[in-house]
Amino acid sequence: MKNLKKLVLLHSNDMHGDFLAENVDANLVGGVSMLSGYINKVRQEEENVIYAIAGDMFRGSIIDSEFQGISTIEIMNMLGPDIVTLGNHEVDYGVAHLLFLEKCANFPIVNANLHISTNHARLFNPCKVLEVGGMKILFIGILTENVIAQCKTDGLIGTFVNIEDAAEEVGRICNTYNAIDIDFTVLLTHIGFEEDKKLAAMLDPAWGVDVIIGGHSHTFIDEPAVVNGIPIVQAGTGTDQIGRFDIIVNTDDNCIESYSWKPIPINSETCPRDEAIEQIIGNYKHRTDEKYGRIITKFVRQLTHPTRIRETELGDLFSDVLKEALGVDIFLLGSGSIRNEQLGPIVTKGDLNECFPYDDAVHMVYVTGAQLKHMIKFMLRDSVFAGEHCEFYQLSKGLVVEYDQATHTFLRFEFEEQPVEDEHVFTLGLQHFHYLNVKGSFDITLEELRKNRPDRVVSTSCTQVIEEALLAGQHQNASGEGRLILHLV
Q1: Of 47, 44, 42, 22, which is closest to residue 32 (Cα–Cα)?
Q2: For a Cys staple, 455 with which of 9, 260, 262, 365, CB 3.0–4.6 Å?
């Protein structure tokens, strides 16, 4: 007779400070209040329930950024996750501040591969065993180099370089903990859905990994991807939905007997509200509304940023503002710096800061035409359009790039209506984060660029530059087309 037990595993990822519900077609959708209400409801209905978060609780809202994550930790404490792993945005306020925030958390945070470079001492517990209903559940937290680029601002912090190293670390932890009769093993990752598939394929079945719950790529799915016998899931982004596993665990053989998974919509029709958590959020919102409620400008219409991997209206507007204000030939604006899909027509300070929360310095570097073509071609590599979660850039006015994916060639590469010559040297503006990560984003090094001419900082705050430009005039508009023309296969 098999010894079978039921486990309900709820999970979120990439919440990004999405605390407040929104009106969609006359219904309230999302928000931490109804998310908490659903989790509480499941805990009352089921015996063995675990709620996990796969990274990026921080960034994306004024409530989060104004209090540098302290507000988020307090709200998450009320939400009550059983286990959390780190995402790349958890280090946005600095590693030292993150370690402080961990002390404020009433829930365990696991990460197996952030370490101090000098002695390889880990910054966090790599894993945690949770006991529920007589079952021992092992959670391991994984983050890799390609998503933790922010740590390059701190030379003392390191991480494993690639998926292969991460897989080896998973094996090491599983081999260590298998001796204590682990019934079920979960990888909590924040590396992207496609990378999760690669990682799953590298895992030895003997290690006993049962499920991968991921984040970072904001992937909405209808059913799990199964690789190497391991179900892989994500729950999109924000708080509009939550993932739910109903799993029958064979505790004799320490494996899944059967399971079902589905995304659960968080809305007023299916989820009760949590009034206690609403009060905490309301207190923070009242304080931020007073500071950020003033109107900065009025656009001609609402401007949009529906995707990171195309030219967009907000991308055109912000890149042009930074180009003109800072006097560079070209500005390449990180698409991921724009966090909202729309802005305006009325724009308050809070709206702008929530849409564009990264207050980086700006560096002016010098690039030849040949280097610029190489950088843009690398940005437009096939894997980007196949779903790889990586950096993409918005082009400032004057630069026109027409690219054919089938032949991997430029049909046009012009600056101010003239073909870009390989030997021509341009001044190029980059935000600090992207300046530090030119190798990963553009396949070029700062050393190569500095051979043209030394770079320098031209602004200590790109957010202030944008805000001042918007304050100076009304009725801004942008077309969102004509600069990056893509012919995709």
Answers
A1: 22
A2: 365
For residue 245, what are the β-bridge partners? 9, 261
Query: H or E stretch including 419?
Result: strand 418-419
Residue 193, SS3 per DSSP: helix
- CA 19/CA 62 separation, integer angstroms: 10
Characterize the bridge pairing of strands 184-189 and 157-159: unpaired
Integer Cα distance of 411 and 137 in angstroms = 55
Residue-level pLDDT at 406? 96
Q: What secondary structure, in 3-state letters, does 339-386 show?
A: CCCEECCEEEHHHHHHHCCCCCCEEEEEEEHHHHHHHHHHHCCHHHHC
Assess whether the previous peptide bond of 345 is cis (omega < 30° from 0): yes
Cis omega (within 30 of 0) for bond into 108? no
Side-chain half-sphere exposure of 36, counting CA atoms within 13 A? 21
* Contact present, 483 and 312 (Cβ < 8 Å): no
Distance CA 138, CA 120 (A): 23
Q: 131: number of CA atoms within 13 Å, CB side? A: 3
pLDDT at 341: 94
- Considering only the C-alpha atoms of the chain, give the largest distance between any 2 of them, rounded to a whole number of Å: 78
Element (H, E) at 264: strand 255-265
Residue 396 DSSP class: P
Tell me the two tokens of residue 20. 């407040």
* Residue 132 and residue 121 in contact, taking contact as beta carbons nearer than 8 Å: no
Which residues lie closer than 8 Å to 381 by C-beta, 6 or more apart?
none
Domain chopping of the chain, boundaries: 4-285, 293-487
CATH of 4-285, one of 3.30.200.20, 3.60.21.10, 3.40.630.30, 3.40.50.11480: 3.60.21.10
Task: Write down the CATH number for the domain with range 293-487.
Answer: 3.90.780.10
| Residue 250, burial from CB neighbour count under 10 angstroms (0-12, 13-18, 19+) | middle
- Residues in the chain with pLDDT < 70? 25-26, 117-120, 145-161, 179
Phi-psi region of 238 (alpha: psi -120 to 50; beta: other; left: phi over 0): left
Residue 146 is predicted with a pLDDT of: 60
Distance, CA of 152 to chain centre: 17
How far, in Å, are 44, 72, 93, 282, 354 from residue 471 at the CA level?
51, 30, 27, 28, 17
Dihedral sign (CA 304, 193, 210, 171): negative
